[in-house]
Specification:
Number of helices: 11
Shape: globular
Largest sheet: 8 strands, mixed
Number of strands: 8
Structural class: alpha/beta
Protein name: Esterase
Strand content: 15-25%
Family: Belongs to the esterase D family.
Distance between the termini: 49 Å
Oligomer: single chain
InterPro entries: AB_hydrolase_fold, Esterase-like, Siderophore_Hydrolase_D
Signal peptide: 1-22
CATH superfamily of the largest domain: Alpha/Beta hydrolase fold, catalytic domain
GO molecular function: hydrolase activity, acting on ester bonds
């Protein structure tokens, strides 16, 4: 009735008093997408940002859920919002199973996500680089136990990252494959250290067990520096992958390094967590 009266008064040319205008002002309610945790870390001697998105029905029952661990998973200038949005979309339109998204924020990407190099130019340019093993230990010993202890997880896990985070995904798949069930590397920076990780892939693959595991690789039109080591990696996968590994490489020639991630991540989420058939 107050709004109807306001409209009638305006139509009649009668000015509204400031108090009346204030009463019709919209209310503000924050939009809550997930929960951010400051996780104490012995590995880093302080707290680290962990962001968690739960499926809409999480609080309504006792179901357990797979977990998608997202590198560069911060909420500011990183990827938590758009990847958790893909999980939310799959829930809404029924194209994927419900999944918990855990974003692990980066602080110093070349320190945390790049493996060590002896290249003097890279060392000079990125003096803090090369501590990926430390970050992997943080994920294994601190992040995963926190998530498994606090949330209803099914035991099914995946790790996703793009660019340097994609390099870390590939390194973790090769060196510590037991950490996750599935790995998604979008435009991985395999150029790092002259493509040494891709060149060593065969030796690492020969040490893998035959446990079921999934690896998803994709790359845009990003030039020979990115393409050449990807071809070395896929050649090693063809030669040395165990039968238990399901892997695929999808070139995306219409995408660049800046545009590839969202669409590639959507395809990966649909592949890894398809909706159950009726």
């Amino acid at each position: 009735m107050r709004r109807v009266l306001a409209v009638l008064l305006v139509a009649a040319g009668i000015a509204l008093a400031p108090a009346a205008l204030a009463q019709t002002a919209p209310t503000e309610t924050p939009i809550v997408i997930g929960t951010s945790y400051a996780l104490p870390s012995a590995a880093y001697g302080g707290t680290r940002e962990i962001n968690v998105w739960l499926p809409p029905g999480y609080a309504e029952g006792e179901a357990t859920y797979p977990v998608l661990y997202l590198l560069d998973g911060g909420t500011t200038w990183q990827d938590f919002h758009h990847i958790s949005g893909l999980a939310q979309l799959g829930t809404v339109n029924g194209t994927t199973r419900d999944v918990i998204v855990v974003g692990v924020a980066s602080v110093d990407r070349r320190n945390e996500l790049a493996l060590p190099t002896e290249n003097p130019e890279l060392i000079a340019q990125y003096p803090t680089q090369g501590q990926s093993e430390r970050f992997r230990g943080f994920l294994r010993d601190e992040v995963q136990p926190f998530v498994e202890g606090r949330f209803r997880t099914s035991g099914e896990t995946a790790l996703m990252g793009e660019s340097l985070a994609g390099l870390f995904v590939v390194e973790t798949f090769l060196k510590a494959p037991e950490m996750f069930d599935a790995y998604v590397a979008v435009s991985p920076s395999l150029w790092w250290d002259g493509g040494e990780l891709a060149a060593q892939a065969g030796a690492h693959l020969r040490d893998h067990s035959n446990d079921p595991r999934t690896l998803i690789l994709t790359l845009g039109d990003e030039g020979p520096e990115m393409q050449a080591p990807m071809e070395v990696l896929t050649a090693n996968l063809h030669r040395h992958a165990m039968p238990g590994l399901t892997w695929d490489y999808t070139p995306r020639p219409t995408e660049s390094h800046a545009t590839i991630y969202h669409g590639a991540a959507l395809d990966a989420v649909r592949q890894l967590f398809p909706a159950p058939t009726p």
